[in-house]
Amino acid sequence: MKRDHLTYLPEKGNIRPVIVQHLAEIYHHIYYFFCHILGIFIELPDHTEGYKRPIVCVSGFLGRGLTWTAMRKHLISLGHPVYVVPLGFQTGNIRKKSKILENFLIEKNIKDCYLICHSMGGLIAAGLSYKGRDRVRKIFVVGSPMHGTYMAYLAPIFPCTWQMMPGSKLVKEVVETYSKFHNVQAVFTKGEGIVRPWESATLGHFDDVEIPEYGHLNLYLGPLGIECLGSLVTSEEKKEPLPIKQKPAVKEDMKKETVASAPSKKVSTKTTATKKTSPAKKKVAKTAPKKAKPKKKR
After folding, report:
1. What pTM did the predictor assign?
2. The domain 6-239 is classified under which CATH number: 3.15.10.40, 3.40.50.1820, 3.40.50.2000, 1.20.1250.20?
3. What is the per-residue pLDDT for 25?
4. How far apart are CA 213 and CA 228, in angstroms?
């Protein structure tokens, strides 16, 4: 496997101290757990407004839509419509999750979009059929165990963990699928706590991006991970930007004309009213009461 890759550094400031990174990862695990519980009842709404290409977020193992709150806010500020796929408890068969993702893209009529997939979400995106792939412009796999992870052996009670074990049939299909497509980019960290070994989260491409911080959840919940993914999407968008939609000037001109002509109509109505009333006065003048003739005395 090739080891050539890129490293993302913060645009402002320095990388957080290692102790802060570990504390942040612990906090994110607690946050992740509560989002999993609350996510049963609460889902993030679709943000359909934006002048750039849409982005679809795909959660990982036990992931819920609420965990994308900070990432979603940042992507919306960049001008993108953002959708979060509701995938349930994220413990079932990965192939079925791929079908749910595909149906979501078709039902929402999402085209030419970016997929940001965290952890197991990268394996879900790999299972899209041609109907779903035709709607995707690029896939960003963030901390995804493309080659499997040894941590899956710790929870063999779920169907998805069996599929994420190294050497499984699904893992081999994922590697084969992503090796055929050039529109897939991996984002990973060497300080992985879930994807073991960390090389499993890479594709071996020259444009694989390393985030030099510790933590599996820091990759998309931490500020550096959010900044990195926003920057990657922006650079991809600049290659072929969408034309900015402008309001047609004809309608604005029509509005101005109507506004300008409105007073003139009032004036004209007044003049016509005066014209109409003037003959009436003449008639009144003509039909003035005649002087009564004196009665003859008997």
Report:
1. 0.81
2. 3.40.50.1820
3. 97
4. 12
